[in-house]
């Protein structure tokens, strides 16, 4: 009788809807980084035109500000998403989960880029510190700041998953599913889109995979770092199947892959 009662109260999440929400959040995080960050900053500060794709913004104009703007845009977006999430307790669990995963992608990308560039000497923040005196010191600072902030960001995502999407800290099955599905979904989405980018397949290995498989890797272990005593603000009844989310994700994923993946030309003014 006890086993039957436990099974009847088990909270389940629909994997297809979770995947759809994750895909939409991943697209948003990418557009924030490449579009609102790099592209918009470049066009506002001197670029006449450029090509925007899912893996890069390319133009004849470049600056330290343009290089830094992708990460900074992600971090600003993460702050806004977190503030909205905290106030969104009355919203449906699907909306709260979308806000949480969007926050996760933005904050992990933002913090992870410091660590990535400091460790590899490649990417946006390698451009930002290029030519600065005591270059080794700047790389060390990036590694330390990146590692520290990334761990802190992962913990915050875990806390948000419990507090604001209503997942019980002891429910390892839900915690695993609601972090693993977004990770795999967006790695696949970004990889497929990167195959079509106009700058060559090398950006799949240099940009798309590091930014997703590496940058989002905190999703694979953050459930172990949720502080004891963290409890839901509002219990969750599970993410049920919703064909509107699924259809919207399917349409935008096709556009993301076949339009933005191939690259689009943007011009100032």
Care to describe what's here?
- The protein has 269 residues and is mostly helical.
- It has one domain.
- It is built from 9 helices and 3 strands, in the order H-H-E-E-H-H-H-H-H-H-H-E.
- The protein has helices spanning 2-8, 15-45, 64-87, 93-120, 124-129, 135-165, 172-194, 202-214, 243-260, and strands at residues 49-52, 57-58, 264-267.
- The chain has a 3-stranded antiparallel sheet with strand order 2-1-3.
- Strand 1 (49-52) and strand 2 (57-58) form a beta hairpin.
- The radius of gyration is 19 Å and the shape is globular.
Question: Which labels suit this protein?
Answer:
single chain, 269 residues, mainly alpha, 9 helices
Layout of helices and strands, plus pairs?
Layout: H1 2-8, H2 15-45, E1 49-52, E2 57-58, H3 64-87, H4 93-120, H5 124-129, H6 135-165, H7 172-194, H8 202-214, H9 243-260, E3 264-267
Helix pairs in contact: 2-3, 2-4, 2-7, 2-9, 3-4, 4-6, 4-8, 7-8, 7-9
Mean pLDDT: 93
Class by SSE composition: mainly alpha
- Which series of helices and strands comes N to C? HHEEHHHHHHHE
Shape: globular
Strand content: under 5%
How many individual helices? 9
* DSSP, total strands: 3
> What value does the Rg take, in angstroms?
19 Å
